[in-house]
C-alpha cells in the first residue's frame, strides 16, 4: 500500500505522540512526521511551508486541549493561510463533549473527530481515505 508522505501531529502529550509515532511506523502510515507541541508552534512552522508549497503535510492530526494555543485557535489561524494543496485535518482528542463535535461544523477543512486512543485499524482507514 502507498504511504502518506508527511503526517503532522499537533499534541502536547509526549506519551501520546510517542505512541502514535510507533503505531504509524507499525502501520506503515507515512514516510515522515512533523511534530508540534501546541498550535502556536505549529502555525509558526507550518505557515512558511504552506506558503512555499514545499514539503507540505498530507494530513494533520490535531489535539484540541493544549497550552499556549489550543486546537480551535490553531484552526482559526490555519484557515487564513494560503495553501498550495488541500491538507486533511483530523481532530484527535480525549474530549467527549458534544459541543466540540458540533463546533466542527464551522470548519470545512476538518475531516473527522476521533476520540483517543488511535488504533492501527483507524490509521488504516485514514490512509485509505487519503490515498484514493
Key attributes of the depicted protein:
five-stranded parallel sheet, 5 strands, 132 residues, alpha/beta, single chain, 39% helix, Rossmann fold, 5 helices
Topology readout:
Elements: E1 4-10, H1 14-26, E2 30-36, H2 39-52, E3 59-62, H3 71-78, E4 88-93, H4 98-103, E5 110-115, H5 120-130
Parallel strand pairs: 1-2, 1-3, 3-4, 4-5
Helix pairs in contact: 2-3
Describe it:
The model has no long low-confidence stretch (mean pLDDT 89). The chain has 132 residues and is of the alpha/beta class. It has helices at 14-26, 39-52, 71-78, 98-103, 120-130, and strands at residues 4-10, 30-36, 59-62, 88-93, 110-115.
Task: Give a summary of the structure in a few sentences.
This is Transcriptional regulator. This protein has helices spanning about 15-25, 40-50, 70-80, 100-105, 120-130; strands at about 5-10, 30-35, 60, 90-95, 110-115.
Amino acid at each position: 500500500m502507498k504511504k502518506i508522505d508527511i503526517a503532522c501531529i499537533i499534541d502536547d502529550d509526549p506519551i501520546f505522540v510517542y505512541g502514535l509515532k510507533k503505531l504509524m511506523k507499525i502501520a506503515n502510515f507515512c514516510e515522515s512526521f512533523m511534530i508540534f507541541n501546541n498550535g502556536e508552534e505549529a502555525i509558526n512552522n507550518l505557515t512558511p511551508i504552506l506558503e512555499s508549497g514545499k514539503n507540505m503535510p498530507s494530513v494533520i492530526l490535531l489535539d484540541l486541549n493544549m497550552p499556549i494555543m489550543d486546537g480551535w485557535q490553531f484552526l482559526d489561524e490555519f484557515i487564513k493561510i494560503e495553501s498550495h494543496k488541500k491538507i486533511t485535518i483530523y481532530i484527535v482528542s480525549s474530549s467527549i463533549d458534544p459541543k466540540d463535535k458540533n463546533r466542527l461544523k464551522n470548519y470545512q477543512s476538518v475531516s473527522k473527530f476521533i476520540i483517543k486512543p488511535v488504533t492501527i485499524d483507524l490509521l488504516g482507514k485514514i490512509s485509505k481515505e487519503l490515498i484514493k
